[in-house]
Amino acid sequence: MAQYQAFSKQIPLLYFILVTNMISLCWTHWHLAPALLTRDLSGGFIFLCVIRTGLWWWRRKQPIDAATAYRRLRSTNWLAAPIAVFCSFWSLSLLPYGDAYHRAHVAFFMAITVVGCIFCLMNLRSAAFIVAIIVNVAITVFFVATGEQTLMATGVNVALVSCALISILLSQYKDFEHLYTTRQAMHQRKEALKEQNEAITRLSDENLRLANLDSLTLVPNRRSFFDTVDRAFTQARDSDFSFAVGVLDLDGFKPVNDLHGHSAGDKVLVDIAERLRVLSGQDWLVARLGGDEFGLVIDGPISREKLEKIGAEVCAVVCLPIAIGAGSVQVTGSVGFAVYPTDGASGQEIYEKADYALYSAKRQRRGGTIIFEGAQALEMSRQKAVEEAFLTANLTEEISLFYQPIVDLVSGRCLGFEALARWISLTVGPVSPAQFVPIAEHTGRIGFITRHLLKMALEQAVNWPAGTFLSFNLSANDLTSREGVLRLIAIIEAGQVNPASIVFEITETAVMQDVEQARASVALLRQFGVGVALDDFGTGYSSLSQVHNMPLTKLKIDRSFVQNIETSAASQKIVRSVIALSQDIGLDVIVEGVETEGQAAVLKRMGAEVVQGFLYSEPMPAEMVQFWLEGGQTKRRHRI
């Protein structure tokens, strides 16, 4: 009803705009265009507009019910398309008549009419959309088809302005809805105040429940979780009890969201939340912290066995298939636990320790459980020290490159070297890339490090034998923009190494963060002539179909499939299948992590041709590469 009342005030103005604009255009074309256009068609349309205006004006103060209001709005909706089509056809029919001024008047008529109509129909969005789409498509297509620059620019300009107006209309309509909803809510609140004290109490309790409930999964939300942690801490501190906090993160959720859409992602979250709610019963709390992360609060008595049992049960219910449409998807979960008072002196500290245990689980035991203990405490302390050292480090002086050979499995000939970053901090000593690269990405310095190391690698690879390629690792952040990729290309152009002898390695994680952007970045690198390899294949969530759709040149099978390849039939099947399928789609395969003669022999029987690993050499500093090439490689295994 509110929509009808607001809309009924605009209809007379709508017809006024149509009539006055049409009369103006008829007047300027009266002696130029046929009477059918300037008199007959326009006159009939104006007559109908006058009749409709009078009808709306006469009805404006008549009381009506909601059904009648809906019927009238619906009839207006149906009339929007014919009116828009007629006005577009009629005005464009006048375009051939007259000079440039008359054509400009036609363009002005269409532009000012569609703008006016959009504003007048702001309380009936569907009609406004219909008018805007029909008129803008007509004016844009027709004006562009004329080939006249002024008309083409006018058509595009009108379309863009209409889009902006539609955006304003949507905003205004939302404000209108919000205002109406607010007024209704205020009215309801006033009525609620008249109820008895018991009803007021029930309403207050319900509001409190909703404020602590996640709207999607209907389990407690982040606010409720931390309130529960604070209460558990207070009770445990006052009574000498213990409690545990757990943090669960879903592994593989983002690919589901990206590949199947947000509705599928929402269903995954809802189903998993329901499974966890059923599993927890009344024994412990499960809450959604945000995104694909859940929190657990477990009251005492707490034991390691109890937490391991709960963690195993949680991981088991998470990894069950979830029906999506005609098929199903599957994710896994990693869990981290921390216990009060063993791991901290406050609820917030216990949560932070549990979160770090989760971080460790995702790195070391993805899909499993880790309970915070001494090892994590040392790691956490070390991590903080590394972060502080990184922020003050002179990275150009402290970071260097080591090189690990990539060899032909049959002949043992060195085909290339992978450049591996090494940071020896003046304050904390050697730091692995697994530690400092995430810090560099988080602080925004990864781009600087990548460019610095690429320049260094190109300078050191100049004197390598012809045909020896350089394999260089890129971070996910290096692929996020075209500008970043162009900077890397500029560095290669400034160097003396043939682009065809350079291979950039990207990880599955980098690809899956933004598949389309990664594909565009890889395509840009390939256009320049460098190769691109997908590193650690098999550890993430990409598939061979996605690999096939990306212009890669190489695939590196992760070392985790090689460790037990001599005894594991599953590993052998996976590696053999990846090698065969990769060769079928034209990708070279490099198998990482070869450490024993037995592994090399098995891989050779499977058809592997290129390998890398400690069996041939550990990563070596740049000054040792030439020595290794000249004779060190004959030792099969060279430790530095």
Structural class: alpha/beta
* CATH architecture descriptor name of the largest domain: Alpha-Beta Barrel
Alpha-carbon distance between the two ends: 82 Å
| Structural domains: how many | 3
Strand content: 15-25%
* Rg measurement, Å: 34 Å
The overall pLDDT, averaged over residues, is: 83
What is the number of beta strands? Answer: 17
Main β sheet profile = 8 strands, mixed, barrel
CATH topology of the largest domain: TIM Barrel
> What is the CATH homology-level superfamily of the largest domain?
EAL domain
Proportion of helical residues: 55-70%
Provide the spatial order of strands within the biggest beta sheet: 8-9-11-12-13-14-15-16
Descriptive overview:
The chain has 640 residues and is an alpha/beta fold. It has 3 domains: 2-187, no CATH class; 216-372, Alpha-Beta Plaits (2-Layer Sandwich), CATH 3.30.70; 398-420 and 447-633, TIM Barrel (Alpha-Beta Barrel). Helices cover 60% and strands 15% of the residues. The strands form 3 sheets. It has an 8-stranded mixed barrel with strand order 8-9-11-12-13-14-15-16, surrounded by 4 helices. α5 runs antiparallel to α6 (125-146), α5 runs parallel beside α7 (149-192) and α17 (446-461) runs parallel beside α18. The longest helix is centred in the first third of the chain and has 44 residues, at 149-192. The radius of gyration is 34 Å and the shape is flat. The termini are far apart. Keywords: Coiled coil, Membrane, Transmembrane, Transmembrane helix. Pfam families: EAL, GGDEF. Residues 183-213 form a coiled coil. Residues 383-633 form the EAL domain. The chain crosses the membrane at residues 12-30, 42-58, 78-98, 104-122, 127-145, 151-170.
